[in-house]
Amino acid sequence: IYKMVNGKPVLLPIKWKELSYVSTEKKADKCNITFLNDELIYPDDPTFDCGAELAVSRGYPGNKSPLRNGIVPKYTPGWPDFKVECAGKGILLHKIKDTRSWDRVKRSDVAKELAEKWGYGPELQDIDDTEEVYDHITKSMMTDAAFLTKMAAKEAKRGNGFIFAVDQTGFYFRREKLGAPPLRTYRFVPRNT
User: How far apart are CA 77 and CA 72, in angstroms?
Assistant: First the structure.
């Protein structure tokens, strides 16, 4: 378990008891960690303040998964256990409702602008061009996630099968890839008993 400091992971020398990590397509990744708090240093230590960025890697020494970053939206102090909830950075797109408008743009242009706003640079964007230029696009008291989902649904109604998603690997506003080959194939071999 790491704390992100100036964009770099710093290993936390903390004893943890339990870790669960859930990653689904429809929701932001979620990680729950239970730390041993027998010395009662949490929550006085700012390591797990709400808004702190943590990273988790699973596996064994020499064979670890890539780091998965997240933001701490809440923690539960206690003794002997201190519990921390960490959610994928995509959860931030669900936090703030506001009103905004764009003139003479495509939906994909709006998606690119919002991706940049939330720190998803060009290397983390998978955004397909939507072609049609609209005189006016308005977002009215919605979160960016709700607005992008709504724009993707409108684009899908045009027959494009569009999706909006954010995960550890990037920001997606694109056509569905229904005919694409699987990303991973698992082969299970039964044991002889």
Answer: 13
CB 10 within 8 A of CB 47: no
- Residue 37 tokens read as 């708090």
Closest C-alpha to 48, from 4, 92, 90, 6: 4
Locate all alpha helices (DSSP H) within the chain, ordered by sequence. Answer: 107-117, 144-155
Strand-strand pairing, 30-36 and 53-56: unpaired
Peptide bond into 43 cis (omega under 30): yes
Residue with tokens 């989902």: 149
How far is residue 70 CA from its own chain's centroid? 7
Residue pointed to by tokens 């506003």 = 173
Q: Pinpoint the alpha helices (H) of 36-190.
A: 107-117, 144-155
For residue range 23-69, list pLDDT tens digits in order. Answer: 766 666 788 888 887 777 666 777 777 788 888 887 777 888 777 77
Q: What is the pTM of this model?
A: 0.65
- What are the Cα distances from residue 60, in Å, to 2, 18, 90? 15, 16, 27
What does R_g of the chain's alpha carbons equal in angstroms?
A: 20
